[in-house]
Give the backbone structure.
Amino acid sequence: MQAPIYINLLPHREARREQRKREFLVVMAGVAVAGLAAVFAGGVVIDQAIEQQARRNQFIKGENTKLDAQIAEIRALRDEIAALRARQQAVENLQSDRTLPVRLFDELSRLTPEGVLLRQLRQDERKVSLSGHAQSNERVAEFLRILSEKSPWLERPELGEIKEVTLPPPAGTREKDRDRDSRKVYEFSLNLMIRRSDAAQAR
């Protein structure tokens, strides 16, 4: 018996084309879904990175605020320390300056050479002005040299003025002896400085 023969009367090409079209649409839908998922995942990652960076920025901002407060506190402490040191120095200077007159008279009595007579002394803080009489210019020059080289407490002596003057005779001198008893001397003035005690002791 002969086998039956089947004839496909359906448009198989159209059916195959439709099947490929459906497969393509499925693939495209899958690609679209995968793309959307990737975009969503990327957005989530970016949002997390932005949030993490914002937290870091906030942390850094907080730490900077703490550092600014610490710096301000350190500056205040430094200013307070500087003020305390200045106060301490002022007290030390006052204590040192109390002994200046005694030290000054002691130095001048020790260093004034023979032939020099001091008549006036004025002190303005560390500046001292002297005036007096000397037998000669050489005596004044010797006095300046001694003040400059041999005193640890006095410094920078400068001659202000020197001139020859005639001293009147002592009171009670008879008229005929007045010319004989008159004396010519050199009147001078000079300025010098008193060293601070720490500078003087360093010498």
